Amino acid sequence: MKRKLLLLALMGILLVPMVANNYMIRLATIMMLYCVLALSWNFIGGLTGYPSFATAAFFGLGAYAGAVCQGQGAPMYLAWILGALVAAIFATGLGLAILRLRGHYFAIASLVVADVLREIVNSTTNLTGGGMGFNLPILKLGVDAQAKLFYYLMFVLALLTVATAVLVDRHRLGFGLRCIKQNEDAANMIGVNATIYKTVAFILSAVFVGWAGAFYASWVNYIEPGDVFDVLYSVKPIVMVLLGRAGTISGPIIGAIVFLLMEELVWRNFLTFHAGVLGLIVVALILYLPDGVLALNFRRLLAWRKNG
Amino acid sequence: MKPILRLEDVTRQFGGLLALNEVSFNLQPGEIVGLIGPNGAGKTTLVNMVTAVYSLTRGRIFFDGKRIDGMKSHEISRMGVARTFQVVQPFPKMTVLENVAAGSLFAAGAKSLAEAKERAMDHLRFVGLADFAASSASALNLADRKRLELAKSLAMNPKLLLLDEVNSGLNNAEINRALELIRSLLKRGITILIIEHLMKVVLSLCSRVIVLHHGQLIADGEPSAVVRDPRVIEAYLGSRYAKQQKEKSRE
After folding, report:
1. pLDDT computed for residue A64 by the predictor
2. Confidence label for A304 from pLDDT (cuts 50, 70 and 90)
3. Residues 150-189, chain A: which have Cβ within 8 Å of B?
4. Mean pLDDT, each 10-residue run in order, chain B (251 residues)
5. Average per-residue pLDDT in chain A?
6. Is residue A185 part of a domain?
C-alpha cells in the first residue's frame, strides 16, 4: 500500500511538466528546493539537536561559488559540483569551530555567518559584482525547456537528499547522532566520537544546500547578496521540519510541502501583509502542534468531527 | 602484577579550589576497591578525570600501561574504561535495548546495529531487565535505571568499571540485588572502583578502600584498618569526636 502510494507520487512528480503551466512548474521546483533545505537541516537540527541557522550561509555560498565559476566560462555541471564542494568544505571548518557551543550559543554563532558572508560578497566587487549582483550566462534554451530542465534537476537533487537521509538513518551515524541529541556527555562516555559525528552531520546539512544554491543561480540567471544570503533561507527549513516532524525522514518532506502551500496561499491573499500572516500561522502551529503534522491522529480527528 | 589503573600526582584546580591534590594510587587487575570520603571530597571529580570529562591540572594517568590523560572520552571508553553516573544518564527517548546497544556498537566494536542489539539483549538478561527491552528508558523506575546504567557499561566490554554511587536512593532489597550483580561482575575479571557512601556495602565488597578528604588521599588500605584510622574518623565525624575517641581508648 505504502509502496504503491510512493510509486504513484513519483509518477505524478515525473509527469508534472507535461501537464502543468510554467507557474506550476516553478512552484513544484521550489517545492523540491524546500524539501532539500528541510531534509538538510534535519541532519543537524532534527537528528543531532543543534539548532543551526547556517542554511542561508551554505545556500548563498553555493550560489556564488557556482555563479563565479560559470562566469569564468566553466560548464554548468562543474559549477554545481563546485557549489556543493565549497559549501561542504566551509561547513567542515565552521563546524569544527562552532559545534563546541551548545544550545542558544550555537544558534547565535551560526546565525551571524550568513551576514558575514554577505558583507564579504558585497565588498569583493571585482569577483562577485558586489551589491550590483551577478549576471550568469544565459542558457541557449527556450523558457519552457529551461523550466523543465531545472524542475528535473531539482527533483534529482531532492531524491539524492532523501536517499542520504535514509542511509544515515539506518547507519550507525544516525544512531550516534540520536544519542548525541539526547545526551551528549553520555554519548561521549559510551564511545561515540561526538566531535566527528556532529561535524559530519553539519557537513551533510551543507552539501546539498550548497548544491541547490548553485542550481538556483543557474536557474534564475541573476543573483545578489541580499537575495541568496537571505535569513529566511535559514528560518524556513526550521519551520518546515518542525511543521512535519523533527528527526524523521517523511516529516521534513511533508513539512516542506505544507509550508509551501501555506506560503503561496497567504502570499496570494494578503499581498501587503503576507510575512506577518505567515508568522502568525507559524506561531499558532508551534503552540498547538508542537510535535508536527505527523503527530496528528487523523482517525481521532475525524471521529471527533463526526461526533461534534 | 602490572597495575591496570595508575594515578600519579593527579591534581585538579577549579579556580581557587583545589579539588584534587596530588592523588596517587594503583588498581590491580581483578580487584574491587572502594573510594570513600565525605561530600565534596573529590570522588566524582576523580572519576571525571579518569574518563576525561575534565583535564588534569598536573599529574599523569595510566590505563593498561598506556598514558590516557590528554585522550578524549570516547577513546578512553573504547580502550575499556566504563563508568556509571551518580545521576543516571540514559538516552530517554530510546528503548532500553537501544540504550544498551549503543554501548556495544560504539565502544565494543559490534559490526552492525543488529549484532549490537543481540549482544545488548544478553546484557539485559544478565542484569534482569530483559522484560523491559522494548520499553522507553524514561519509563523505568530508579532501581531499574541504575541497572540499565550498569548494563550500558557492561555492553562496552570494559576492563575497568567505575561505579559512581550505584546504590544511592535504593532500598535494602534493591541494594542486595545490586551487590549480587557487582559480585558476579568480579567473577568475569572486571576491575572495579566503586564510590560508595554505605559502609555496609564497602565492607562487604571491597578488598581495599581509598579515602579522599578535601581532595587529598588520606588513607589507602584494608577496609577494617581504614575505618579505624583516626584521620578517617576525623574527616567523617569531625575533630572533636576523633579526640573523644582517642581519649576513650586511652582510658
Report:
1. 96
2. low
3. 170, 172, 175-176, 178-179, 182-183, 185-189
4. 91 92 93 91 92 93 93 93 88 93 91 92 92 92 90 93 88 88 90 89 90 92 87 79 72 67
5. 90
6. yes
Within a domain: residue A5?
no
B237/B239 Cα distance (integer angstroms): 7
pLDDT in tens, A36-84: 999 999 999 999 999 999 999 999 999 999 999 999 988 999 999 999 9
The DSSP H or E segment spanning A147 is: helix A143-170
Under 8 Å between Cβ of B106 and A176: yes
Return the residue matching grid coordinates 505544507: A258
The domain of A44 spans 23-231
Nearest CA in chain A to B116: A172
Find all residues with CB under 8 Å of B247, minimum gap 6, and list them.
none
Cα angle B115, B117, B122 (rounded to 5 degrees) comes to 100
pLDDT digit string, tens, across residues A101-130? 988 899 999 999 999 999 999 999 888 888
Give phi and psi for B216, each to the nearest 5.
-115, 145
Cell of A34: 524546500
Most A CBs within 10 Å: which of B99, B106, B112, B163, as the mutation test of the A interface? B106
Q: Tell me: the pLDDT tens digits for A167-180?
A: 999 999 999 999 99
Radius of gyration of chain A (CA): 20
DSSP three-state, residue A205: helix
- DSSP strands (E only) in A105-234: 134-135, 222-223
Q: Does position A308 have pLDDT exceeding 60, yes or no?
A: no
Beta-carbon separation of A185 and B152 below 8 A: no
What proportion of chain A, given as a percentage, has pLDDT over 90? 64
- Put residue B11 in one of left, alpha, beta given phi > 0 → left and psi -120 to 50 → alpha: beta
Tally of structural domains, chain A: 1
Fold (CATH) for B1-80+158-221: Rossmann fold (3.40.50)
- The DSSP secondary-structure symbol of B95 reads B
pLDDT at A297 over 80: no
Compute the nearest-CA separation of B21 from chain A (Å).
Answer: 25
Ordered by start, the domain boundaries in chain B are: 1-80+158-221, 91-150
- Nearest C-alpha of chain A: how many angstroms from B227? 33
Please give the pLDDT value at position A305: 64
- Please indicate whether, in this complex, the C-beta atoms of B103 and A194 are within 8 angstroms of each other: no
A79 inside domain: yes
**Is residue A250 situated within a structural domain?**
no
**How many Cα atoms within 13 Å fall on the side-chain side of residue A185?**
13
